[in-house]
Amino acid sequence: MPDKMQNIIALCKRRGFVFASSEIYGGFSAVYDLGPYGVELVNNIKKEWWKAMVQEREDIVGLDSAIFMHPRIWEASGHVGGFADPLTECKKCNSRLRVDHLLEDIEIFADEKMTEDEINKLFDTHKGKIKCPTCGKNDWTKVKKFNLLVKANLGNFADDWSKAPVYLRGETCQGIYVNYLNVLDSCRVQIPFGIAQIGKAFRNEITARQFIFRTREFEQMEMQYFCSPNQEMIEYEKLRQNRWQYYLNLGISEKNLKWHKHENLVFYAKEAYDIEYNFPFGFKELEGIHARSDYDLSQHSKFSGVALDYTDPKTKEKYIPHIIESSVGVGRALLAVLTEAYNEEQMEGGETRIVLKFPAKLAPIKVAIFPLLANKPELVEKARSIFNELKKDFQTEFDDSGNIGKRYRRQDEVGTPYCITVDFDTLQDDTVTLRDRDTMKQERIKISEIKNILIEKLK
Fold this sequence. Notes:
Helix content is about 35%, strand content about 25%. The chain is of the alpha+beta class. Strand 22 and strand 23 (about 440-445) form a beta hairpin.
C-alpha cells in the first residue's frame, strides 16, 4: 500500500477520524467506526451533498427509506439471482478472494456480465501469473459466484428461515423506486423530478480492501431522477456536468478527477460514466452516473402488480418514467476529501508539519480556543468565556493542554482553520491572537469582532 495511504490511515486512528470496528476484540474485517472528528467531517460532507442536491434544487426532494424491505423487491431488482461476485480460494491457506480483483492486479479486466464459465476460462488463462497475497502460493480453486446480499431473519420464526430470507438492503436506490408513486401522489412534483437519499447499505464483500474505500457496511448518497423517455439523455448530460462541478466546488482539484466511460453496459442501460478520483492507490471510482432507461420501475410494476406509469398532464402521453442516477459512497467521499486535504510540510529547523487543509465548510472544527497558560485562572476564565460564546455559532474546541506549539500541531492535524489564543495582553485591551491554519500567520483582533470575522472567513 502506498506510503501516503498508510500515513492517512495512521492519522485517522491517531486523531480520531476512523477506528477499526470492535478493535478491542481484534477487529471486524472491513467494518469501520467514525471517531469524534470523523463523524463531524462526514456530517459536513453529507450536509454539502444534501444542500447541492436537494436544498438548492426545486425539482428534487428527499427520502429516508427503511433498511429492511419486502424480499420480493430484491427479486425484482435482480439482486437475488444476479448480485454476485466471482470467488476463488487459495488451496494452501484457504484465503477467499475476488477473481476480478486478482485479475485487475495484473491489469486484466473481467466484464461484470461474464458467465461463471467465461470468468473461469479467463482466470485459467492468467492464473499462472497470480500469487496469493496472503501466503504467496499459486494454487486456486475453480471460480464460483458468491451472492453479496446479507441475509437476516427479521420477523421469521420458522426453524429454517433460509427458505424465506429477509435481506439488509444491498443498495439504497430500491427504496427510492418503490416510493416513487408515494412521492408523486403526496408532493407537488411532476416529471421530471428527483428523489435523493442518504442511507446505509450492506454487501457481503469477499475481499474488502483499501481501508474505507470498499467495506461491508457503508453509506450511500444517491439521487434518482425520473424523466420522460425523450428527455433521458438530455437530463443525463446535465447531471454529468452538475456532478463534475460539485466536486470542484467542494475543493477537489480538477487534476485529481477524470471520467471513466463504461464500455460493457448491462442490457437495460443507455450510458454509464464514473467520476474517478486519484486516490493514493490510483484513479478509482468515486461516483457513478448512469442512464437506466425504464427498467427499474418496469420491474417493480411487474413484480408488485401496481401500475407505475405516468400520464403527462399537458400532452396526455402515458409512459413508464426513465431514470438517471447519481450514486456516491460516503466512505469514498470521505477518503477523497482526506486525500485531497493531507499535506506534509517542511518547517524551519527541519520539523515536518502534518496538516489537513480542508475547505472551511468541511472542517470538523472551525475554531479552537487556547489560554496561553493553563495554570493562570484569569486566562482560562477569559478563554472559556470566548469559547462559550462562539460554540453557539461554530463547532468549537477548547484546548489548554501542552504548550501552544503542540496545540497548534494538534489542530493542524484535524484541519481546524483558525485558532484563537488568549494571552496577558487580552486582559489589558480585549484583543486576541487569530492564527490561520494554512499560512500560520497571526493577527490581533478585538474580542467583539471575532464572530463577524469568523463568519466572513469561514464562508
